[in-house]
Amino acid sequence: MAKADIEILWTELEPGCVVTEPGSSKAYRTGDWRSFRPVLNKDRCIQCGLCWIFCPDMAYAQDGEGYYESNPEYCKGCGVCAKECPTNAIGMVEEEEPEL
Ligand code: SF4
Ligand code: SF4
């Protein structure tokens, strides 16, 4: 059996799948690779909050008027909110290609 060039003790390994610091997910802006984004039609919104409940990324927050708006820094564009909205107040639109 070949000997490893570098020997690392298990106690020196970074822990995996472990949240070592509360609130650390705020640092990961998961919206970077989104290809679609939700757009709210306020005329159809009844402010039920189902989009906020179903969003797997907790990207929604209420604005001052009580409407739910998704935060593009965390929205991954999965479309769950649009699917679950009972009044079809959310439409999914394609993101534009960034100019290089
Ligand atoms: S689920 Fe639809 S109707 Fe309900 S708050 Fe969200 S956008 Fe408005
Ligand atoms: S598209 Fe997905 S990630 Fe974005 S706000 Fe809706 S449910 Fe959340």
Describe the structure.
This protein has 100 residues and is of the alpha+beta class. It has a domain at 30-94: Alpha-Beta Plaits, CATH 3.30.70. It has 2 helices and 4 strands; from the N terminus they run E-H-E-E-H-E. The chain has helices spanning 50-54, 80-84; strands at 36-40, 60-62, 68-70, 90-94. A two-stranded antiparallel ribbon has the order 1-4. It is elongated and about 65 Å long. 15% of the residues are buried. Bound molecules: iron/sulfur cluster (SF4) (2 copies). One iron/sulfur cluster is lined by residues 40, 45-51, 68, 85, 87, 89-90.
What labels would you give this structure?
two-stranded antiparallel ribbon, alpha+beta, 4 strands, Alpha-Beta Plaits, binds iron/sulfur cluster
Molecules bound to protein:
iron/sulfur cluster
The major sheet is characterized as:
2 strands, antiparallel
Structural class: alpha+beta
CATH fold call of the domain at 30-94: Alpha-Beta Plaits
- Helix run count: 2
Overall mean pLDDT: 90
Detail the poorly predicted runs: none
β content, as a range? 15-25%
User: How much is the radius of gyration in Å?
Assistant: 20 Å
Q: Tell me the series of helices and strands, N- to C-terminal.
A: EHEEHE
Query: Can you tell me the CATH class of the domain at 30-94?
Result: Alpha Beta
Distance between the termini: 49 Å
Query: What is the tally of beta strands?
Result: 4
SSE layout and pairing:
Blueprint: E1 36-40, H1 50-54, E2 60-62, E3 68-70, H2 80-84, E4 90-94
Antiparallel strand pairs: 1-4, 2-3
Bound molecules: iron/sulfur cluster (2 copies).
One iron/sulfur cluster is lined by residues 38, 55, 57, 59-60, 70, 75-81.
